[in-house]
Predict the structure.
Amino acid sequence: GIQVEQSPPDLILQEGANSTLRCNFSDSVNNLQWFHQNPWGQLINLFYIPSGTKQNGRLSATTVATERYSLLYISSSQTTDSGVYFCAVESITGGSYIPTFGRGTSLIVHP
Amino acid sequence: GAVVSQHPSRVICKSGTSVKIECRSLDFQATTMFWYRQFPKQSLMLMATSNEGSKATYEQGVEKDKFLINHASLTLSTLTVTSAHPEDSSFYICSAEDGDHYGYTFGSGTRLTVV
C-alpha cells in the first residue's frame, strides 16, 4: 500500500516561532488532508489540499502532487497549536478510496 | 460544515462484556464510514470500512467477529467490541466522507477502558 512519512516526528517551539511540517507519500493520491489532533483526541480538519496552496489565518499548506509531498506552515505559533499534526492521503485500492495516515508530528509550543 | 457525532466519548467496561460505539453523520448522508483505532502516541490504524447496506470490509489482522460493524442507515454506523478484554482498551475514532468529496470528517473519538 501507499506509504506516508511525516517529518519531523517531534518539534518543540517557543511561542511566536514559525515552523514547517512535511509529508511525503509514495504514490499518486486523490486527496490529501492535514489534521490537528488536540490533547483530548479530537481530530480537526485543517486543509483539504490534493494540490496547490491554501491559507487559513496563521496556517498555510502547499501540496506538490507531481513530487509527492505536502508542507504545512505554522506562523507565529501559539500554545494552543500544541498537539499532533497528521497528514492523511487517499489512494485507490481495489477500486475503493482508502485513507492512510502518517505517523504524525508532535508539536509542543512553550509560552 | 459536515459534522460527525460519536458516542460515548468514554466507556469503562468489565472484561467479557460487549460495548457498542455509535457514529452518526448529522447533516449529511454517508454511504461509507471508516473506523480507526489509535494507541497512545501512535497514528490512526484503519480497522474497517463500513458500507451502508452491505458488509464491512476489514483490514488485515482485524478480527471481524470481535469488532462487529453495522451500517444500517446512511447516517449511522456502529462498532461493537464483543467479549472485551483489557488489550482492547484503546481510542476508537470514526470518520465519514461528506459525499461531495471534500475530505473526511472525524468523530470526537471513544476512549475504551476494559478492566
Notes: Chain A touches chain B through 21 residues (CB under 8 Å). The first strand of chain A starts at residue 4 and ends at 7.
